[in-house]
Amino acid sequence: MILISSLLISYTLYWIYLEEKRKRRKLLSQKKSSEVLLGQISEHLAPFLDSFPIDEELKELNFLGMPIDYIHFGEDKVTFIEVKSGGSKLSKKQRRIRDLIKDGKVEFKIHQIK
What we know:
The chain is mainly alpha-helical. The chain has helices at residues 2-45, 92-102, and strands at 61-63, 70-73, 78-81. It has one domain. It has 2 helices and 3 strands, in the order H-E-E-E-H.
């Protein structure tokens, strides 16, 4: 009888543990989803903030979204802009693009369709 009671208690505790783990995963997923949505909204609002790195007219600013958020065509230079919110960091692909730009490995190509 003691063995059956111990097994029932163990099963119940294990079930409670699994249920709490599932709830926690769901909450973390919802939190992450909210953070992603807030980041996407921030990307679109960023050009209207005083801290945005482009002082020139925004009509030459183009939203790309992925993998880099904006490209600005200034009078004397082209600027790539990635908007980050909170503690987010550049992705591996974004770091690679940043490094290629820093190393001058950027090209301009024309594709003529006949």
